[in-house]
Amino acid sequence: MAGSGVYTPFSSIYHHSKRGDPEEGKLLVARVPVLDPEWSGQRVATEEEKLESESTSSPVTDSGFCHSESCSDASSIPSSSATFTSFMIGDPFTFVLLNEKEGRVKVCNGSFCCHLQYKRISQGDSEEMYAFGAFAGLHTLDGDLSLQVCALVRCAGSDPSSCGQGVEEAETKMDFVMEGKYWNQH
After folding, report:
1. Is 96 helix (H, G, I), strand (E, B) or coil?
2. To 5 degrees, how large is the angle CA 55–CA 60–CA 66?
3. Per-residue pLDDT of the chain (186 residues; tens, 9 = 90+)
4. Could you tell me the pTM of the whole model?
5. Where are the domains of the chain?
6. Helix extents (H) in the chain
7. Is 8 left (phi over 0), alpha (psi -120 to 50) or beta?
8. DSSP helix/strand/coil, 181
């Protein structure tokens, strides 16, 4: 059994399949709303500015992701020093815990690096633990696949070794921008 999904506080899209199914893999694409546009660096435009901008281009897309050299350089973030290894779907991910309510972190697995800017919005008395991880290598659980993955995960428990284990629900809402420079020779 394999699967993946894109989950938001408002909706989800997911796909599960098992070996031999007519559709074993599927690319999932979803528009994910920004919970707090001002936090992510997006300025909330007035109606007049919205009309004016329809005829001009901007380096930032609706999602807030940057496609231009004029945007801030995520590579200037130093690697987080308190990394640990935990297995997710059979692969050894390098993780860093997200201990703060908001921040910027970088985690690398070999020469493959992932960057995260985040802001947590806890719901109630939630004590959920989150980690940000990277993996680059050969995934051999369901055949041989060369993968490069950046992952923001809720840990299953309060111990870092539980990061990467399956969880079925979460209460924390989070705004984030995740970046990775993906390359593969295979």
Report:
1. strand
2. 150
3. 566 777 777 788 877 777 777 766 677 788 877 777 666 565 555 555 544 544 343 333 344 444 443 344 545 555 566 999 999 988 999 999 999 999 999 999 999 999 999 998 877 777 899 999 999 998 887 777 888 999 999 999 999 999 999 888 888 888 899 998 887 666
4. 0.65
5. 79-186
6. 47-53
7. beta
8. coil
